[in-house]
Each structure stands twice: as structure tokens, then as C-alpha cells.
Amino acid sequence: MDVLTAIKGRRSIRAFQRKIVPEEIVEELIDAARWAPSAGNIQPWEFIIVQKQEIKRRLAEAALEQSFIEEAPVVIVVCADEKRSSTGYGTRGRVLYCIQDTAAAIQNILLAACSLGLGACWVGAFKEEEAREILKTPREIRPVAMIPLGYPDESPPPRKRRNLSQIIHHDTF
Amino acid sequence: MDVLTAIKGRRSIRAFQRKIVPEEIVEELIDAARWAPSAGNIQPWEFIIVQKQEIKRRLAEAALEQSFIEEAPVVIVVCADEKRSSTGYGTRGRVLYCIQDTAAAIQNILLAACSLGLGACWVGAFKEEEAREILKTPREIRPVAMIPLGYPDESPPPRKRRNLSQIIHHDTF
ipTM value of the model? Predict the structure, then answer.
């Protein structure tokens, strides 16, 4: 699928068919993720592929009862390695680059999923402490997004975007 | 260009031909940016298209003398609107969603640029206060990245990535 088609055609999908997503497809998504750029090529990311029903159920709970999370065949939890980024770049690494680098990786996953006929949704609203406990992450590994994914069972229309004239400035703000 | 080809083939480009980048191409990149997902579809982003030589020069200075910034025909400065995100989501909106949403938009720009034969580079290392002053941004508008871009005059090899086995975990960390 063409890049611009994927960028503009991607939707947040929250309803999934029961069809299983093959392991090699999930790995292809994570392969796409790791080709994101990162500050100093530090690659401060880790990916947890969650398929166990009980863990998905608890993640949905931690995510303020967004029940579609447990209905997805797979959830990829993307984590930021704060230590990796702060070792290279101090506080700016920990609070900025680390979040940006993993967000670029997440966007790659969403676009790759779209191009492979999968649906996915970027979930950022969850209780981090609960997610950490469920996923048994070490202290420096911060879960920054859950991505439930599967074959889509809905086809939502595009959501309205701000006009270009509202968001473009020239030379200065 | 195919999504996965762009994701894996994109490189950070720091050397540019003198050839001008047409305005409509730059707008196409920002059009791609605004199709990124954002928390609650809040779209907390603003884009400054910098073409004036003097401003590019000062941005390069603010970016710790990364002189390739002033040599690029165009620099897109991506800004995060902290107020937009914090109004919707409080502190988590300001320090997390706002950064993630703009990072996804930046990744869209880099991929769209690659697919259109342009080269670009994500610059995150700069003195924010200096950048704010140069760009005359209001208080709530935070410059989060500079993207110098143009037709590439180099073709760097891929940089090494961590192996999938190092970054993939199953069900828990």
C-alpha cells in the first residue's frame, strides 16, 4: 500500500474479527517499529506481545475499562526505556526523546498494520502503575502505549482534521 | 512508494541539493502530518515553514551549530500546543500525549518526504528558549522538532538496529 494512502486512510479500529493474527505478521509490525528514527540511534524501545486472555483483561481494566482491548486477538504494549535515553541525553532524553522515539515506532506499527489489512488503535489512557504491575516491567521501562490489533470488524469514517491554513505558519509563528 | 519500503528505506539526510522544494510539496508533507492520530483527536500541533535564510541560520545556532540546518532549502519546525492537550487531559496530556501526537505527525512527515524523493532529518537537540525567541512562539506553543528537508545529496547506509529477539517480549516483560 502506498505511504500516503496508508497515512490518510488509517483509522483507529476498536472492533475486531475473531480471526487469529499470525505471529510472523505481529513480528513484521515490530520489525517496522524498530526502523523508526531515534535520538543518537539509541532505540529506547521494548515491545510486549500480549495474547493471554487474562493479561489482556487486566490491561483493559488498567486502561479505564476500555473493553475492546481484551477483545483484540493481540495487544502490543510499547515501552520506553528511560535509562537508555537518559544515559545518552540526561533529562531531555528521558522526558522528550524517549517519548518521541517510541511514538515514531508506534506510528510505524499503525501504518504497517493498515498496509497489511489489520486494524489497530493507539491507547494512551491507562494507569501506568497498574500496567507496570501486570506486565512485570523493571523500573526504567515505562509502558507508553497499548496497541490492540486484529482484523477489523468496522470501517469508521475519517475524523475531521484542522485545516492546513490553521496549522501552517511561515518563518515565524 | 510502499509503506514498508518507506519505513525501512528512510534515512536521516543531512546533505541537500540546491534545488528548491515547491511550496505544494511542503504542504503535502504537512497534510500527511495532520492525519496522524492524536489523543481525543485534539490535534495539538502547529507547523512553521522556515525558508528565510537568516531564520534558518539562527535555528542552526540554537541547534548546537548543526550547520546542515541552514543549508536545507526548507526547515519545518513542529510545535506542540501544550494548552490544547492539557485542557483535555491535564498533566498527562501536556507531558505525554502532546509529545506523542506531534511525534507521530513528525514520523508521517519523514515517511511522506521519503516517498516523494525528498530527504529529511529529525532534529531534537536544540535550545528551546532560543528557538522560541527566534520563532516568536506564544508561551503554550513548544517547538519539539526541527525538520530540515530538501532533495538529498547523500545516500547513507542503514544504521544498525537491535535484533527482534532483543526487543520482543511475550505476555509480560
Answer: 0.98
pLDDT attached to residue A154: 98
Quick one: pLDDT band at residue B44, thresholds 50, 70, 90?
very high
Among B7, B102, B171, the residue with its CB nearest the CB of A35 is: B7
Let me know if residue B9 belongs to a domain. yes
As beta bridge partners, residue A77 has: A48, A146
- Residue B82 CB coordination number (10 Å): 18
Closest CA to B173 of A6, A77, A87: A77
Interface test with A, best of B51, B89, B107 (most A CBs within 10 A): B107
Mean pLDDT across A101-106 = 99
CATH number at B68 reads 3.40.109.10
Let me know if residue A34 belongs to a domain: yes
Overall number of domains in chain A = 1
pLDDT in tens, A116-126: 999 999 999 99
Mind giving me the DSSP string for B61-96?
HHTTT-THHHHSSEEEEEEEEHHHHHHHHHHHIIII
Convert the pLDDT of each residue in A45-55 to its tens digit.
999 999 999 99
Q: Answer yes or no: is A106 within a domain.
A: yes
Q: Rounded to a whole number, what is the distance in angstroms from the first to the last CA of chain B?
A: 35
Containing A169, the helix (H) or strand (E) segment is: strand A168-170
Q: What is the pTM of this model?
A: 0.98
Judged by CB atoms closer than 8 Å, whether chains meet at A48 and B170 is answered as yes
**What is the largest distance, in Å, between two alpha-carbon atoms of chain A?**
52
Give the residues across from B114 on adjacent strands: none
Domain that residue A65 falls in = 3-167
Whether A172 is covered by a domain: the verdict is: no
Q: Which contacts (CB < 8 Å, 24+ apart) does range A91-96 have? A: A92/B125, A93/A39, A93/A42, A95/B95, A96/B99, A96/B124, A96/B144
